[in-house]
Amino acid sequence: MIVDFGQLTPRDSYPWLINAINPRPIAWVSTVSADGRTNLAPFSFFQGICANPPTLMFSVANDRTGRKKDTIVNVEHVPEFVVNLVPYALREPMNLSSAALPYGESEFERFAVAPAPSTHVRPPRVGASPVAFECKLDRIVRIGEGPLAGNVVFGTILCAHVSESVLTDGVLDPRKLDTIGRMGGDTYTRTTELFTMERPA
Ligand SMILES: Cc1cc2nc3c(=O)[nH]c(=O)nc-3n(C[C@H](O)[C@H](O)[C@H](O)COP(=O)(O)O)c2cc1C
Fold this sequence. Notes:
The protein is α+β, with helices and mostly antiparallel strands. The protein has a single domain, classed as Electron Transport, Fmn-binding Protein, Chain A (Pnp Oxidase, Chain A), CATH 2.30.110. It has 5 helices and 13 strands. It is globular. Flavin mononucleotide binds near residues 45 and 60.
C-alpha cells in the first residue's frame, strides 16, 4: 500500500510517523517559567545534531487545539533547558510527567521526581538520571502552524552531568546506561540486547 500524506489530516499522519520511525530516544526536558516554576516533560522526537558546537534537538508539537505546550512557553521566556536521559528504572515517573498539568504546576513536585541543581542553567536536572545535558537555546524552528505543528528546539550543550555508575574505564557504557526507547503508541523498547559491527575501512 501507499500512504499518501497529502490525503491525510495531521491527526491521521501522526500514527504513521510514530509507529514507523523508531526506536526513538527520549529527552526528558526540564525548563523553568519566567517566575521560576519548574516543568518536566518527555519528548521522543529527539536527536544529537553535531559536535561543533555540541548541539541537540527535540521537537515539541502544538497540542490538538493548536496551543503551545508548557515546555515551549518556558523556553521562549527562559532560553535554557536540561535534557535528562531515561533509563528503565525511571520509566514510570517519565511516563507520568507527560500528563498535561495546568501551566505552572511542577511535574517534579506532582510526581515526586527529585531535582538536583544545575551548574550553568536555571532549570534543575533530574537527580536520578545518569546523564543530564545542560543546554542553552540556540534557536526554535517552527514547522507548520496550528494543531500538531512543530516547534523544533535546538540547544547548545554546555555541560553534561554523568553518573560514575554508567562508565567503564571512563567511557559511557551503553550496557550500564540501560536507556529505553519509544516505539509506537504505548510500546517501548529496552537496550539490553546489543550487538556490534565493525565499520568498513
Ligand atoms: C515517551 C513520550 C514521548 C513523547 N514525545 C513527544 C514529542 O516528541 N513531541 C511532543 O510534542 N510530545 C511528546 N510527548 C507528549 C508530551 O510529553 C506531553 O504533551 C506533555 O504534556 C508536554 O508537557 P508540557 O506541556 O509540560 O511541555 C511524549 C510523551 C511520551 C510519554
